[in-house]
Write a structure and sequence with these properties.
Length: about 190
């Protein structure tokens, strides 16, 4: 099957990341702002980074090492770009230090870079097509007010237009029909 080829690539879930949208919401992108950012697993800190925001860039400082090697200091700027929104305001973007493309998220390896530069796939890309369809169907089911069980019937949420509800139900039914694994389809034919 075609989905096996994605299983050899690493996933974005395997890396620490900096999300410029979250940093903007928390007020971290004002010139002169500096802070430490950390990541933890099961309550234990396993990675951290120091950053300082300047006018149109953010300066990252951290230490990294490959397995068994010595620690290496890293310090470099990452450009920030702002785009205007249609209804006012501005949206921030990182400029990837490697390829200079706009990115909302940079992933941490030896250097922080975009998903394309690190050749990362999304976790959903590593799933079999029927599991991906099932995840999509569950998301639509929950959006319509369904509980954890996908087989439970849903009632149109109050305030939702019938046309919108019908469109969501059609998308749900299409995804749910693809969620049956191929080996079960052939078993019953």
């Amino acid at each position: 099957m075609a989905w096996y080829r994605w299983q050899t690539r690493e996933s974005t879930d395997d890396y620490v990341h900096l999300d410029v949208r979250m940093m903007h919401r928390r007020g971290c992108l004002h010139p002169g702002f500096s802070a430490n950012w950390q990541w933890s697993r099961r309550g234990e800190r396993f990675a951290w980074i120091n950053f300082e925001t300047q006018n149109d860039q953010i300066r990252l400082r951290y230490r990294t090492r490959s397995r068994g090697d010595e620690w290496q200091e890293r310090a470099y700027p990452v450009a920030l770009e702002w785009t205007r929104c249609h209804f006012g305001g501005a949206r921030p973007w990182f400029r990837c230090p490697c390829c200079q493309r706009r990115a909302a998220i940079l992933y941490g390896a030896k250097f922080f870079a975009c998903r394309r530069c690190l050749n990362l796939s999304y976790e959903s890309q590593r799933e079999a097509p029927h599991f991906r369809a099932l995840s999509k169907a569950q998301g639509i089911h929950e959006k319509l007010g369904g509980t954890g069980c996908i087989d439970d019937p849903v009632v149109k949420p109050k305030g939702m237009h019938w046309k919108t509800y019908s469109r969501h139900m059609a998308r749900f039914e299409a995804a749910y029909s693809k969620a049956v694994p191929p080996w079960l389809v052939h078993r019953f034919l």
